[in-house]
């Protein structure tokens, strides 16, 4: 069993590599110093990093769903999105845009979209790296690309996806958004910019508290207790939203790391916290998109 303090330090190093764009050689050197050898370092990294092999919970060919990759343009630039529609549904459905992490539209995010569809929604997961050629298979390259995203263009494309989604058949005309990490930050920015009816942010860095006055939609915010990087922005954001009288529900899950919902990362995934947050998320979306 890995010593908890060693594991926590390893997670911190990996998160610094992921979010501060450190090079992989630096990560390996730091992990080897921590773990005692290059072999042990690689094992630590493998346990923390997302594993595409563990991505699928809902089969892409699940007969309850109609799933397809759609391409076109939004805001005058190439656009791509994974759309999932439940084949059988009682009554119109709300639409949920699923916003990816800083690795782009991965198999895991596509799987999350299928889970949301099975929970009673139309799910649309945009690839916000499409204007740059689309999500690459190499996650390090995807992280490099995400740092060069034209954020105004990404917001405009998301508003375009939301506007198109309102016109889909068998829908309520309401559009929510769920985002994780980079995507969680994106949900907060969309709440400020407008264009959606409800938002759920998982461990997403927050805008400046002064932006809270611009929010016009209900928000649900999920935070990890050990994720101090995001907490530094999240706490003031929640306080500002509440002070401005905005409809916000915020939860901090004790003893868990950033990305605790990502079940493809063995070291960071926390089943109890993930299931609790997921249940709250689905109930929130039903209230706001089907009410």
Automatic annotation (TrEMBL):
Enzyme class: hydrolase
EC number(s) per entry: 3.1.1.45
InterPro entries reported for this sequence: AB_hydrolase_fold (IPR029058), Dienelactn_hydro (IPR002925), Dienelactone_hydrolase-like (IPR051049), TAT_signal (IPR006311)
Record keywords: Hydrolase
Domain Dienelactone hydrolase: 80-287
Gene3D superfamilies: alpha/beta hydrolase
GO MF annotation list: carboxymethylenebutenolidase activity
Tree of life domain: Bacteria
Coiled-coil annotated residue ranges, if any: none
Protein name in the entry: Carboxymethylenebutenolidase
Gene source species: Sphingomonas dokdonensis
Gene that produces this protein: clcD_1
């Amino acid at each position: 069993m890995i010593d908890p303090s060693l594991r926590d330090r390893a997670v911190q190093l990996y998160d610094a590599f992921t979010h501060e764009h450190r090079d992989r050689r630096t990560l390996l050197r730091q992990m080897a110093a921590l773990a005692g050898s290059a072999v042990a370092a690689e094992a630590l990294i493998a346990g923390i990093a997302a594993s595409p092999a563990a991505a699928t919970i809902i089969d892409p060919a699940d007969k309850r769903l109609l799933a397809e990759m759609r391409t076109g343009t939004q805001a005058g630039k190439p656009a791509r999105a994974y759309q999932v529609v439940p084949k059988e549904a009682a009554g119109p459905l709300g639409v949920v845009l699923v916003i990816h992490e800083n690795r782009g539209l991965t198999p895991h995010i596509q799987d999350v979209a299928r889970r949301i569809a099975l929970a009673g929604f139309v799910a649309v997961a945009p690839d916000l790296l499409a204007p740059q050629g689309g999500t690459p298979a190499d996650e390090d390259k995807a992280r490099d690309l995400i740092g060069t995203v034209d954020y105004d263009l990404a917001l405009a494309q998301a508003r375009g996806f939301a506007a198109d989604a309102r016109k889909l058949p068998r829908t309520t005309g309401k559009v929510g958004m769920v985002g994780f990490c980079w995507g969680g930050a994106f949900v907060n920015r969309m709440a400020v910019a407008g264009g959606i009816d409800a938002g759920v942010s998982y461990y997403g860095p927050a805008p400046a508290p002064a932006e809270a006055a611009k929010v016009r939609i209900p928000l649900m915010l999920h935070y990890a207790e050990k994720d101090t990087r995001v907490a530094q922005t999240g706490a003031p954001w929640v306080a500002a939203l509440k002070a401005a009288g905005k409809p916000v529900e915020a939860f901090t899950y004790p003893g868990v790391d950033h990305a605790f919902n990502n079940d493809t990362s063995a070291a960071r995934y926390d089943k109890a916290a993930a299931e609790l947050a997921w249940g709250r998320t689905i109930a929130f979306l039903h209230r706001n998109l089907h009410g």
